[in-house]
């Protein structure tokens, strides 16, 4: 959905070149270091945004070797700023001696300028993507291009449905992994947020780097190749093709659901900040052990640094491990043709996910109203609602809030992803308030405690994200990355000190009345 990797505009080929050749030359020249066109060319020579240009480049460059039948999604321009990874974690997979890196600031500045210019003038009409001769050759070969245009309303419905469904799966994965990794004695890591954050970043890195699940020719049918096609393919710069492919796959609702919905809900920035505060206040205890032993402030500060360094280091390493995994198994995917079937995704899964997404959400609501253990002889032993079902009820709300906030705010400050920062701070504050209400002595009952636990695990867990946060840190310039990362951790901890600290250092935390 995002156009960040498709910085392929602004440089033009020779005057005698065809539009197809000029687009390919643009990519080649851009990657050779012609920064003037890169920084200024937010509108290409054809007047198209790089997202639209990348789609045309792939279909037109392969029109002589494949009959393009892609399902074209009508994507809103605001999707350019979505929180899914803008830039590939590994920009030099072949380890070339000389490479040119992209930055998040540069791409989002271009996207912002493009949106402003489009408000002043309409898009020019697009050129036909294949000539009459190409069409006749395809017709004689028995392969005729049949294009389907998905309306903007349908695209948004598919995207929202994927987000709802994968937010439920991401929440279940986070809660399940926390239960598996924090419920055994003598655990070397006693704060529960570390494993989900690491695992979610691995998946995010894989999706950002992968080129096999959604291939560059996704949605195209094979056609007999011509001799001149080999020469044309040889002129395509691999780096430019990779950028165009990343821009193309971000127009696919399934990809947005996986990257923004699943990975964003699998990881939780608010839980990370909560664990930092608990380390500072000496309230972290290993599972099954007694309350922490009293210690001086110096040791608490060391514990605070340990949580910060461990989480950020493992999350960043997970992002690159996932990217390296995608590079390593690319050959395997190609050899056994393991990519996602285009027909199944576009004609079956997109429609089925509307029922699955909203149906599963409704099922979570019904399970919260009538849980299987609702009439237990011991009400305090009821676990379903406090453990999972209330979290599933609130999870899609947090995920959708993050999705729309990123779409509308991330492009405001290219050097500081404002949308991700705002939702992380908001979710951290809400989690702190829910924690306080659950730990106030002699306040509320079991059901109220379970609802608050669901808000913390579901809404706050899906509203905040670590996977997107670390991918932005990896893509920003060094100075901006430290400013953004420091402001996020410092701002979140300051909120927790105000919200949770006011209870911790006055009345103290009481016992939780429900079983989470």
- Which structural category do the helix and sheet elements fall into? mainly alpha
- Say how many strands there are: 4
Spatial strand order of the main sheet: 1-4
What is the distance, rounded to the nearest whole angstrom, between the alpha carbons of the first and last residues? Answer: 36 Å
Taking pLDDT < 50 over at least 5 consecutive residues as the criterion, the unreliable ranges are: 1-70, 127-131, 142-147, 221-234
| Overall average residue pLDDT | 76
Shape label:
globular
Portion in helices? 55-70%
Radius of gyration: 25 Å
Number of helices: 19
Multimer state = single chain
- Helix and strand run: HHHEEHHEHHEHHHHHHHHHHHH
Largest sheet: 2 strands, antiparallel
Question: Which strand-content bin applies to the residues?
Answer: under 5%
């Amino acid at each position: 959905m995002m156009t960040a990797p498709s910085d392929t505009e602004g440089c033009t080929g020779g005057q005698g070149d065809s539009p197809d050749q000029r687009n390919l030359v643009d990519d080649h020249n851009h990657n050779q270091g012609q920064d003037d066109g890169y920084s200024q060319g937010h509108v290409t020579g054809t007047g198209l945004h790089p997202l639209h240009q990348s789609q045309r480049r792939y279909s037109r460059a392969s029109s002589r070797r494949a009959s393009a039948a892609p399902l074209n999604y009508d994507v809103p321009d605001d999707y350019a700023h979505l929180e899914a990874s803008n830039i590939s974690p590994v920009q030099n997979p072949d380890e070339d001696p000389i490479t040119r890196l992209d930055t998040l600031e540069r791409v989002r500045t271009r996207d912002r300028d493009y949106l402003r210019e489009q408000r002043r003038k309409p898009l020019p009409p697009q050129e036909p993507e294949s000539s009459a001769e190409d069409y006749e050759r395809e017709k004689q070969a028995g392969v005729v291009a049949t294009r389907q245009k998905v309306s903007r309303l349908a695209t948004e419905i598919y995207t929202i449905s994927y987000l709802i469904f994968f937010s439920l799966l991401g929440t279940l994965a986070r809660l399940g992994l926390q239960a598996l990794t924090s419920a055994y004695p003598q655990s070397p890591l006693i704060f529960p947020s570390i494993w989900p954050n690491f695992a979610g970043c691995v998946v995010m890195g894989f999706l950002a780097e992968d080129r096999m699940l959604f291939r560059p020719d996704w949605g195209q049918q094979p056609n007999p190749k011509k001799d001149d096609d080999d020469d044309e393919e040889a002129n395509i710069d691999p780096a430019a093709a990779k950028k165009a492919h990343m821009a193309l796959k971000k127009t696919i609702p399934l990809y947005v659901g996986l990257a923004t919905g699943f990975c964003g809900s699998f990881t939780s920035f608010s839980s990370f900040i909560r664990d930092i505060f608990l380390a500072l206040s000496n309230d972290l205890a290993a599972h099954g052990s007694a309350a922490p032993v009293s210690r001086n402030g110096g040791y608490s500060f060391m514990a605070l640094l340990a949580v910060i360094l461990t989480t950020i280091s493992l999350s960043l390493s997970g992002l690159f491990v996932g990217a390296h995994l995608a590079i390593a198994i690319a050959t395997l995917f190609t050899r056994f043709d393991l990519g996602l079937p285009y027909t199944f995704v576009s004609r079956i899964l997109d429609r089925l996910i509307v029922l699955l997404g909203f149906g599963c959400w409704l099922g979570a609501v019904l399970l919260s109203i009538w849980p299987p253990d609702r009439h237990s002889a011991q009400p305090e032993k009821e676990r379903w609602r406090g453990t999972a079902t209330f979290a599933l009820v609130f999870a899609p709300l947090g995920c959708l809030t993050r999705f729309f906030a990123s779409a509308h705010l991330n492009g405001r400050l290219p050097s500081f992803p404002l949308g991700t920062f705002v939702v992380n701070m908001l979710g951290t504050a809400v989690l702190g308030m829910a924690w306080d209400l659950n730990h106030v002595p002699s306040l509320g009952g079991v059901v109220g405690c379970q609802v608050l636990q669901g808000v913390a695990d579901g809404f706050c867990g899906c509203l905040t994200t670590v996977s997107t946060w670390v991918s932005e840190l990896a893509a920003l310039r060094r100075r901006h990355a430290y400013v953004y990362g420091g402001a996020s951790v410092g701002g979140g901890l300051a909120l927790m000190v105000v919200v949770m600290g006011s209870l911790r250092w006055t009345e103290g935390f009481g016992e939780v009345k429900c079983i989470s």
